[in-house]
Specification:
heterodimer, A: 211 residues, mainly alpha, Helix Hairpins, two-stranded antiparallel sheet, 3 helices, 2 strands, B: 106 residues, Rossmann fold, 5 helices, 44% helix
């Protein structure tokens, strides 16, 4: 259980605590709503992430296996020579997107202008290589999309966890503590009040008896 | 300034394939080398693809970049197929966010 707040039993303190509790309750509600919405969005992204990842892994594994095959049927050095000066450069358009005040990346692709995807002459290499290169180049777009979605998922997951801690801290520590302090002060003030009344009554009877 | 480009970090067998489509590739054959290169790449690139086998070994280092918007460090299968590391990570995320894996339970 939360430890007790130490406060002076004064009216001023009571007012301050009441305001504080109001803020805490309101904050708690807001954060809880935020948490719900973030989880809703996160689940969508997580599903998308899983779908993309499975697709990409499957296709990329195949493409790479094809590539290895193409590499093994050619002479050493030939492939290296053919591919080491790529004909296209891949540039990205990077930005940020705001999802529930989490800044997540948004990544687009801008392929540079080029006449051909293949940086080599067709005479020197096998057709398997052409095929695997074109598969991988189609895959690139999916890879970028995966990068974007996966990063978004990572960041949202961390943020949701952080937010949950805040909600719990408010719900189980801050609000009960403040409520208890308010209760204590009210009791103390009431007690003082009663003490006062009793004292007055006593004095009144003393005065009445003297006459 | 961060480059608007993609880097691929992995063994020389597969990086060549990515080089052909215009990504910048870096070879790493040992853990130390991979970790050193990733440190430099993380400063300069927005998207970094790293092969699963390397990613597993330098997991802690990758975790440091998790909460930044860029770079996005994404594991990809290596030439001998996927190990399920990437899928595992998604499940971990769901567990972290929701408390239990409610989406992909088998």
């Amino acid at each position: 259980m939360a430890s007790k707040l130490k406060v002076n039993p004064t009216r001023m303190e009571l007012r301050r605590l009441k305001d504080r509790k109001k803020t805490a309750v309101r904050g708690h509600k807001l954060l809880k709503d935020k948490s719900d919405e973030m989880i809703r969005q996160f689940l969508g992204y997580a599903k998308e992430n899983m779908r993309l990842r499975l697709e990409v892994e499957q296709e990329l594994s195949n493409a790479l296996a094809e590539f290895m095959l193409a590499k093994s049927v050619s002479q050493d050095g030939v492939i290296w020579e053919a591919l080491s000066m790529p004909a296209i450069g891949m540039e990205l358009e990077i930005g940020t997107k705001n999802i529930m005040s989490v800044n997540v990346p948004s990544i687009g692709i801008k392929k540079s202008e080029s006449t051909s995807l293949y940086p080599y002459s067709f005479a020197s290499v096998t057709s398997e290589l052409d095929k695997s290169i074109s598969t991988i180049s189609v895959l690139a777009e999916k890879l970028i999309k995966l990068a974007e979605v996966e990063k978004t998922c990572n960041m949202l997951a961390t943020e949701i966890e952080k937010n949950r801690r805040r909600v719990n801290a408010l719900e189980y520590i801050m609000i009960p503590q403040t409520e208890e302090a308010i209760h204590d002060i009210t009791m103390k003030l009431d007690e003082n009040e009663r003490g006062n009344i009793v004292r007055l009554m006593k004095v009144k009877t003393m005065l009445a008896n003297r006459e | 300034m961060r480059k608007e480009k993609i880097a691929v970090l992995g063994d020389s067998d597969i990086t060549l394939a990515f080089k052909a489509i215009g990504m910048d590739v870096y070879n790493a054959n040992s853990v130390g080398e991979a970790s050193e290169k990733l440190r430099i790449l993380a400063r300069n690139y927005s998207v970094i693809f790293i092969t699963e086998d390397l990613a597993v070994q330098i997991e802690e280092q990758i975790a440091k970049y998790r909460n930044r918007t860029y770079p996005a460090i994404i594991p990809i299968p290596s030439s001998n197929g996927t190990t399920g590391y990437g899928v595992q990570n998604i499940k971990k995320d769901v567990e972290k966010a929701v408390g239990t894996d409610i989406l992909f339970k088998d």
